[in-house]
Amino acid sequence: MKGRLMNLGIRTLVGLASLALAFASAEAAAPQYKWKIAHIRPAGTAIDKDVHAFADRVAKESGGRIAIEVFPASQLGDYTVVQERVSLGAVEMQVGPLGTTVDKRLNLPSAPYLAKDWKDARRLFSSDSQLSKKTVELLQKQGLQSIAGWPVYFGGIVLTKEPASPGDPDVPKNIKIRVPPIKSFEVTAQALGFLATPIPWADTFTAMQSGIVNGAIGGGAEGYFANFRDLAKYYLAVNDHFEYWFLYINSALWAKLSDGDRKLLQTAAGEMEKQRWAVAEQDEQANEKRLSDAGIKVIKFKEQELQKMADKSRKVGWPTIKRDIGAEFFDQVTADIK
């Protein structure tokens, strides 16, 4: 009896050891990844903290197999350059605005006054909206797989000099401002009475410092405080566009991942976006106060003034964008925009 029990115990131990060895071998055989993810804000900003938390969660839940190094402040290049590098696989991931050099249809998410308030913005950029679906499809054609997003803020204009009649878009401001190299921002700036000069985000500080331009559009309170608080004198909360950044990964890399790793990344990214939606509006208000506390005059507008800006920007800007990206595509995406 003792012999049989001893043999059974030995077989059990051997079985457990074999099972442990099998698990160890499977774990050792699982792919190890070391990736780079880029964004445009300085270290310590809201997006930087969220991306670090995302990377930490992925590392923890993958048992350290997926290590993602964060590169803030455009360290890997302007976001348009990094977008191309991600499509080629030279950089694995980015979260940021969309460059439109390859496909002008990507102008549409930043078109002027698509959303009028935060409730509108949540609907506009929900995963099942036409805008989100079409944007994901366009990114896929560039070798980019979108897995989530990051709502930023409503945009405004930062200036180094006082504008004339800031609430009236029909009054020429005679102020040259930087616009992203995206057509929608150029026509919006012009509709609001400014002179537009396309300049990459990474070169904007130098352009403002040297007087090439006296302001910028394409960002909001958080971005302007992080980057231009030492230069800016005025901030106009014109709510010209809703800033929403897409988190994407190289498509070829995505296709090679296991179902489990893809689910892990999507879950972590989706949770990051959900948490951001919960605080984004309050964060916008807090950053406007930070601008004010830094000595920058924050100019808010009455509802009638904002409506006049929106009406003119849509009248001037939407036909230009529609012509630029194609009427059929424009109509498909804006069909559910109220």
Task: Give a written overview of the molecule.
By secondary structure, the protein is of the alpha/beta class. It folds into two domains: 30-151 and 244-280, Bacterial extracellular solute-binding protein, family 7 (D-Maltodextrin-Binding Protein, domain 2, 3-Layer(aba) Sandwich); 156-241 and 286-334, Bacterial extracellular solute-binding protein, family 7 (D-Maltodextrin-Binding Protein, domain 2, 3-Layer(aba) Sandwich), CATH 3.40.190.170. Helix content is 50%, strand content 17%. It contains twelve helices and eleven strands. It has helices at residues 2-29, 46-61, 79-88, 118-124, 130-140, 183-191, 204-210, 221-228, 251-256, 259-293, 303-325, 327-334, and strands at 33-38, 66-71, 93-96, 144-154, 156-159, 176-179, 195-198, 215-219, 234-236, 242-250, 297-299. The strands form three sheets. The protein has a five-stranded mixed beta sheet with strand order 2-1-3-10-4. Strands 8-5-9-11 form a four-stranded mixed beta sheet, covered by helices on one side. The chain has a two-stranded parallel ribbon with strand order 6-7. Helix 11 packs across helix 12 (327-334). 41% of the residues are buried. The model has no long low-confidence stretch (mean pLDDT 91).
